[in-house]
Design brief:
Blueprint (H helix, E strand, L loop, with lengths): L2 H46 L39 E3 L5 E3 L3 H13 L4 E5 L4 H17 L4 H8 L16 E6 L6 H11 L5 E5 L4 H4 L4 E7 L2 H10 L3 H12 L11
Antiparallel strand pairs: 1-2, 3-4, 4-6, 5-6
Helix pairs in contact: 3-4
Length: 262
């Protein structure tokens, strides 16, 4: 075999090895890209999920059809219904509430003031955009403490409802604090705990029920359900979720475990 032929064959072998190395590099890069994309999709799915990973009863999912407006259950398992409409009453401090709860809310405040307790509505209705802002502010606060975003979101969910699942977006919930010039928050919270049910309001996130409501204890957050139901919830010391669970035995308002109606 001539020298020229040997050189040609040697050059071909080097070219083939070079091509194989290039292919191997591109294959490796492609695999890494696929792994990155899969991880990114999983992360986004986890971040956007409304599922709760705790021990709370996951069967508390309620059909809103044919349920009275004041009894619609909204929590992290039950987003706001699409067809829910609100007519607002504007309060003197600029907050808004569903007009249907305003008469009882005003009556409750009037009676509290007559007894020397001076409540104010710190938060009423929130738009979805406002709820997003409140939630993201809470997440950012935890991230400033050094938590990664996913963990910060999990922690924020214990204090602020996920946008789309907040009772403030429903217009039936109010955060009530004190007029600090005339009362303390403790005085207001104590009065509400004893009397709010008389006006159709319940303490929505009571202490010791965090595993049921999905939200930590909030002595300022009250939800309108109507006087009859509020009386029952108050006397039995239960939450709105537990009320629905009990009513399911009679009215079939809860979905079964497989997500289908009864």
């Amino acid at each position: 075999m001539g020298k020229d032929t040997k050189k040609l064959n040697s050059g071909r072998r080097r070219s083939r090895r070079k091509i194989r190395r290039i292919r191997a590099i591109w294959t490796g890069l492609f695999v890494l890209l696929c792994v990155f994309l899969v991880a990114h999709v999983i992360h986004c799915y986890e971040g956007d999920s409304l599922d709760y990973d705790g021990d709370t009863d996951r069967d508390a999912v309620v059909e809103t059809e044919d349920i009275l407006w004041n009894l619609i259950l909204v929590n992290k398992w039950n987003p706001l219904p699409d067809d829910f409409n609100i007519e607002f009453t504007l309060l003197s401090n600029g907050q808004r509430v569903d007009s249907r709860i305003y008469p009882d809310l005003q009556s409750m405040f009037d009676d509290a003031r007559e007894e020397g307790v001076f409540p104010v509505v710190r938060e009423g209705f929130r738009t979805h955009e406002e709820q997003v802002e409140v939630f993201e502010d809470k997440v950012a606060a935890f991230m400033r403490e050094g938590y990664r975003r996913r963990k910060a979101e999990e922690m924020a969910e214990q204090w602020v409802a996920i946008p789309g699942t907040s009772e403030h977006e429903l217009g039936l919930a109010v955060d009530i604090n004190a007029d600090k010039e005339q009362s303390s928050n403790e005085e207001v919270y104590n009065w509400l705990a004893e009397n709010a049910w008389r006006y159709g309001f319940i303490l929505r996130y009571p202490q010791g029920k965090e595993d049921i409501t999905g939200i930590d204890y909030e002595p300022w957050h009250y939800r309108y359900v109507g006087k009859e139901v509020a009386k029952q919830i108050y006397e039995e010391g239960i939450t709105l979720e537990e009320y629905y669970r009990k009513e399911n035995q009679i009215k079939g308002w809860l979905k079964s475990d497989d997500g289908s109606g009864d």
